[in-house]
Amino acid sequence: MKIISSIWVVMIHLGASGCAAQGLKIEPVAAVVTSNEADANSLFTEILQDYVKDGKVNYRALRADVRLDTYLAHLAATNPDILADKQAQLAFWINAYNAYTLKVICDNYPVKSINDLHTGGLIVGTTLKKTVWDRKLVTINDQKISLNYIEHEIIRPQFKDPRAHFALVCASKSCPPLRAEAFEGNKLDEQLDDQGRIFFSQSDKNYLELDKKIAHLSKILDWYARDFGKNDEEVLLYVSRFLPAELAADIQATPKKWKIKYTKYDWSLNE
Question: What does the domain layout of the chain look like in residue ranges?
């Protein structure tokens, strides 16, 4: 898989002026990056299709595949700010979060839960900001950052698309299912909508009792409630767009009559 085009390699070794001196045609940077990103997305899709089935990951086999490191090298060398548009940038960051999560599990496999990688466990690690998500394990554009930085400093505040919560996967069974393809800017809306429909169809994470008007929702909707709405009514109305027609119609007609309860979060490894 050719992640960096030959013209880009020449520019690295010779510099722009050197390329001109050699009589070589220099493509605009944006065109090169777009080509590279398409190749990279194809590579990540190949990896995911080989090791992800129904949202579950074969970490035992994946850890021996050097293609993941090749993809991470692409992420490390990419400046996402010069990608084609905001959709391409958001897709890049979602892919980066998921790819580096795969990497950290592979590097520590076998492990029963990602929580085993925190200093002091989930509660202590979160309190002290010593979780695996706080460690600067990610390299993007040659800069070291953390998974938490990607999620809470980039994706949530800069893109403000709650559907990203249905795409980010923290290697746990109660996370949304890991999609067996890379997210891509030109079809991101379709992919995120599909992720939402899949996520809310999984009864171990979300289920609704129409007769009792109780929505049993994932803790993700509790932890990040403000991303989905100012109150329970707005959260339910947002969720309704991903539900079957009968449920969606009832919530949209009588949102105040519905109550929200949250399902238990299973942090077991999604393998």
Answer: 6-262
